[in-house]
Amino acid sequence: MSRDPASTDKLRALISKLKSLTAAAELHWERQLGSAHRYARWNNNLLILGPSAPLSDRSTPRYLFMTPFDSPSCIEINTSDEELGEAVWELVAAVESSTVAEPPTDPFAVNEDFLSRLLT
Hints:
Elements: H1 5-23, E1 30-31, E2 38-42, E3 45-50, E4 63-68, E5 75-78, H2 85-99, H3 112-118
Antiparallel strand pairs: 1-2, 2-3, 3-4, 4-5
């Protein structure tokens, strides 16, 4: 994938920030029930990291997918990216480390608080 150096630098800084926020437990990643992906909500964006596989398995490509909640725009960066692939691997390791003991969640389950806000 060809991109200008300034965009690559911005993406590298973004991935680094996500990794730092994850390590500091300021960005909470979850694993959806029945899914091989981790997801997080950050700055009105949905972040998806996947698929889940042992960290030792570097033959399974991983990707970071980012999309705003209010737009169809998106960015995807994968571990095959020559310039950013290693940064994605580092983020995968940070996310795996921070979520290893967490049970999967069902983001589509009925949430009474959310339902109450819809009905007011």
